[in-house]
Amino acid sequence: MAEPDDEDVPDLGIPLETVATIADLLNALEEDDEDEEDFDDEDEEDDADDEDDVSEELVEEMINELNESEQAALVALALIGRGDHEAEEWAAAVKAAAARNARTDPADYLLKLEGAGELLAEGLAAFGITLEEIER
After folding, report:
1. pTM (2 decimals)?
2. I need a surface site. Which of 19, 68, 127, 134 has the fewest CB within 10 A?
3. DSSP class of residue 8?
4. How far is residue 99's CA from residue 109's CA, in Å, rounded to a whole number?
């Protein structure tokens, strides 16, 4: 897929590398949760420390280090990915995300949102951007 023209993609207000990294971490957390269900209690005890390397705390810290407009952009991408808004409604999506972030911690919201990493990828895809084409 050809990279989108800069004119076609609005300024998302957050570096694409940041979105890709957070999406990758959220996907890894979800995979860990799925894998954890397959382990018996003994295996879980042995692997618990290893799974903490990609932890909710790490993702929370990364999101909390973003400024408010970057946090709103991140949540807006998830909202677009979920289908609450279209890419053409970017300004409205950011406004809705900022309002949500005023009520709820954005890191907590994204960590509790099922499939958040995939939703971020879908949000980017609405703008013609794939996670795979973003250098990290």
Report:
1. 0.82
2. 68
3. T
4. 13
